[in-house]
User: Fold IBH1-like N-terminal domain-containing protein from Chenopodium quinoa.
Amino acid sequence: MNLLERKKAIKLSADLAMASTRNGKRYWSRALITKASKDRETGNLAKQILGDKTTHNNNKKPTSSRNIRKFRKCDPKKCGVSNSYKVKKARAMAKRLVEKRTQILKGLIPGGEYMDEFSLVKETLDYVVSLRAQVDVMQYLANSPQLFIQI
Assistant:
């Protein structure tokens, strides 16, 4: 096993360990496990790590039960035409910026492309906490002097 193969195996092990601790409660964890299990290169290794339990990811878009409030538009007579134009332009720019950032975030979170915005925020928070724990464990392992003692 060369260095690149070892690196992939360690990363896969860490990702699957992180995802399996969530017990399928989060969408990102199910997406990570499903992707690793279906991949040609990592499928066998994933089955060895996870055991025989299989996971199914139906890729349904989660629905949010939260109601979204709509803001009233500014009446041009009350706000003035020039002010109304500036407000519309600012809203359009802000909306485009939020949409771009949301698409980037959906690409970063496993399974994010199938989530609505509300679910994406919840999943992102959970995923970041799990990644932070993974980094802490990896740093501990890298700094542990006992791992480098030759017997």
